[in-house]
Design the sequence.
């Protein structure tokens, strides 16, 4: 239950991040076109596999945001650079957080009490507003 809670909160956070980006594009006279995404896995062999997959996904997102930042630099788009800086900092936190969970899971291995404790800790995670970039449109 705790791990499921962690992923539910993560989902809400990612939705808020997407909203921030869409609001930014719309505010700058851009056009947001939402496209279907590829199906994502929903079952893993272990909790460690679930968090390994999550870490790889966060690294992919970091790469995509870095690419946007590089483009903003090339275009001398200082407003976008400023906005994307928050996302870069957020991704550092995201990767570190998932890596910490993985490190703890690897330490406890199959210890039932350890798994119980980490699940309890993950269950305590709550959702907070995504960023200072959030607007009332969220």
Sequence:
């Amino acid at each position: 239950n705790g791990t499921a809670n962690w992923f539910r909160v993560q989902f809400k956070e990612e939705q808020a991040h997407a909203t921030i980006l869409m609001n930014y594009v719309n505010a700058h006279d851009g056009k947001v076109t939402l496209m279907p995404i590829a199906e994502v896995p929903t079952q893993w062999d272990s909790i460690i596999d679930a968090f390994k997959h999550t870490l790889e996904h966060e690294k992919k997102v970091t790469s995509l945001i870095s690419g946007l930042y590089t483009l903003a630099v090339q275009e001398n788009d200082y407003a976008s650079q400023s906005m994307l800086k928050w996302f870069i900092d957020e991704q550092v936190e995201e990767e570190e957080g998932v890596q910490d969970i993985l490190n703890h899971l690897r330490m406890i291995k199959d210890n039932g009490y350890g798994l119980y404790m980490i699940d309890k800790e993950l269950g305590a995670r709550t959702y907070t507003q995504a960023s200072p970039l959030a607007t009332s449109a969220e």
